[in-house]
Amino acid sequence: MQRRANFTILNSLFMKKNTTSRRSFLANSAKATLALTAGIAASGSMSEAWGAVKTFDGAKFSTGFKQEPLPYSYDALDKAIDSMTMEIHYSRHAAAYATNLQDAAKSEGVDMTKPLEDVLTKISKYSVKMRNNGGGHYNHEFFWKSMSSASTEKPSGKLLTALEESFNSFDSFKNQFGDAGKNRFGSGWAWLFIDGDKKLRIGSTPNQDNPLMDISDIKGFPVLGLDVWEHAYYLRYQNKRADYINNWWKVVNWGFIQNRYATMM
Ligand code: MN
Predict the structure, then answer these.
(1) CA 55 / ligand 1 centre spacing (Å)
(2) Rounded distance from Cα 208 to ligand 1 centre (Å)
(3) How would residue 173 be classed by pLDDT, with cut points 50, 70 and 90?
(4) Does pTM surpass 0.85?
(5) CA-CA to 150 of 20 to 30 Å: which in 28, 79, 93, 249?
(6) Fold annotation for 2-264
(7) pLDDT higher than threshold 60 for residue 211
(8) From ligand 1's centre to the CA of 227, what distance in Å?
(9) Ligand 1 midpoint to CA 135 (Å)
């Protein structure tokens, strides 16, 4: 069975909904602007022109509808997240998202042999149950892989260079990403993502939304995501979300994240 996410769909979203990206795209990229202008002249359609210069290949990132095994033991991330939090988070919260997603997919006629990403990029066509649980399942499957007991202090290679170019320094990136998590009111996620201009951006989403979704204020391909729901940290940190975020850097699996970024670019 081959899973292949269709990011042509994702690309078209940037054009339809994200005027901020479109503006910064026009302002920041002379080369792409030329391509865009040429495309508009040739096709008369800005949407087609946008699609022509965006070629995300999501083949290696397709997510299934079932929960995968946790890639480490519940106590492996104790530097940042305690064992009981991990157990409850994985075996109850995240497991429930997977179960409820499969229920929704069955009742709404979704082909579960295809990538979940295909559903997320057109989530506006589905139920609230699909949105909450499809997002919840995707976000957590990604989150578990994004952490490791053998974390390195920072990424290397293309991702480190891109972070330094985009946010001035790696420390400045961490501060801005951390602020996105600290300032998200209520439950949600902080994201590092690649926008429609293939630039790195930081943002946050409420509830279980993510940047793949066509209803999201921020749109793009997730590179790194941080769960800032209270269930992710409350047993050890109570109301101190900032302490959880500051400690979380100790368990980020930069090897996985930088490969994800390099493959996407
Ligand atoms: Mn969670």
Answers:
(1) 31
(2) 8
(3) very high
(4) no
(5) 93
(6) minor pseudopilin epsh fold (3.55.40)
(7) yes
(8) 6
(9) 11
**pLDDT at 109 exceeding the cut of 50:** yes
DSSP string, the chain: ------HHHHHHHHHHH-HHHHHHHHHH-HHHHHHHHHHHHHHS-HHHHHHHH-----GGG---SSPPPPSS-TTTTTTTS-HHHHHHIIIIIIHHHHHHHHHHHHHTT--TTS-HHHHHTTGGGS-HHHHHHHHHHHHHHHHHHTB-TT--SS--HHHHHHHHHHHSSHHHHHHHHHHHHHHS-SSEEEEEEE-TTS-EEEEEEETT--TTSTT-SS-SEEEEEEE-SGGGTHHHHTT-HHHHHHHHGGGB-HHHHHHHHHHH-
94 C-alpha vs ligand 1 centroid, how far in Å?
Answer: 7
- Using the mean position of ligand 1's atoms as its centre, give its distance from the Cα of residue 264 in Å: 25
What is the Å distance from ligand 1's center to 109 Cα?
26
Distance (Å) from CA 231 to ligand 1 centroid: 6
At residue 58 the predicted structure's pLDDT band, cuts being 50, 70 and 90, is low
Q: Judge whether residue 94 has pLDDT over 60.
A: yes
Distance 70 CA to ligand 1 centre (A): 14
Predicted confidence band at 196 (pLDDT cuts at 50, 70, 90)? confident
Mean pLDDT over residues 217-241, rounded? 97
Q: How many A from CA of 191 to the centre of ligand 1?
A: 14
- Report every protein residue that has its C-beta within 5 angstroms of ion ligand 1: 227, 229, 232
